[in-house]
Task: inverse folding
């Protein structure tokens, strides 16, 4: 007189697979956050000096930025993404 339905088992399996995916993604994020300078291996792209533009690109952690700068970054991203 056992159950004939495998719904609960399927749900549990699906949840387990989703957790495994989330854990894999979190591991990648954690590894990225451990890097001191994510752009260290991209040295040729850190400076740009052409056509009258002299730019230096740097990477900062969000915790190092002022709140107004973070708001500006998100608003800029939002504005640029909405036009697509």
Result:
């Amino acid at each position: 007189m056992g159950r004939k339905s495998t719904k609960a088992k399927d749900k549990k399996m699906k949840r387990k697979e989703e957790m495994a995916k989330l854990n894999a993604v979190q591991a990648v994020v954690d590894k990225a956050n451990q890097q001191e300078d994510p752009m260290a291996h991209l040295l040729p792209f850190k400076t740009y000096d052409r056509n009258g533009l002299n730019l230096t690109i740097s990477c900062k952690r969000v915790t190092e930025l002022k709140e107004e700068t973070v708001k500006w970054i998100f608003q800029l991203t939002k504005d640029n993404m909405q036009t697509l």
Notes: The two ends are 58 Å apart (CA to CA). DSSP finds two helices and two strands in the chain.
